[in-house]
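Q: Got a minute? One more chain.
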Amino acid sequence: MLNVLPGSFDLHIIDTCNLNCKGCVVLDYLQDGRITNSRYELSDVKEVIENLTRLDLHLEELKILGGEPTLHTNLDEIVDYLLSTNRFDFLSLVTNGLNFTPKIVNTLKKLDRLVISVYPLEQDLGDIIQASDLYKDLSSHVDITFWRQNGFHLWGQEEDNIPYSTELNWERCYQKDTCRVITKKHLYRCTTTYSEKKDMCTWDNQQEVIDFISSDKPLDHCKVCPFPPKLQAWESNNLPIDTKNFHRGINLIKNY
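A: Always. Here it is, folded:
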């Protein structure tokens, strides 16, 4: 019997990014401007899928993320392989929309859903994309969602005048359903525990994986991870580089 794991699962294939967002939960979780430059090759992605196959598990949604996943030189191969596996219902990708080369666009057309993160850099990238020929072409093949991010969470810091408890943190947090992370060795219920490498489950046993994903019990980390956390306005760790890459991305969109 095929066992479907509900919710959305994130597969981070590359840590390199063309933006330097302060407080990025993947690349700047500790707000120290770090970038690890790690990446998954096709062989690594196959190992992840082999775990699902071995345990006869099926995902409701698999999301490809980075860093910026469109910077991965073998993205097309990875997408084609994933689509051939029949181990999920929907394949999505999250991008900042600044690397829409013709080759990348042809790859993105194969997806079920494309999520474009929009940051407050000079102009609204979402408006620019929606007015472009690129959008007309892409949206005829894939469902596009814009995710405007004017601020980033300060993980571990409380907002003023909000009651917190382990149970409330768990109950209010969206990550446990929409930001689960899968790697070659482990599963995580959220990006925060993935960043801290704690509260994970291995691929050793099918029932353990099912119980881990279906559990409504707060994680140990929920005790020290207030949700909702304090918000900070979006900032760049390297604004000149981000501005340069932003304009390059806009030119790719307008010249498509």
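A: The chain has one domain: 3-254.
Q: Perfect, thanks.
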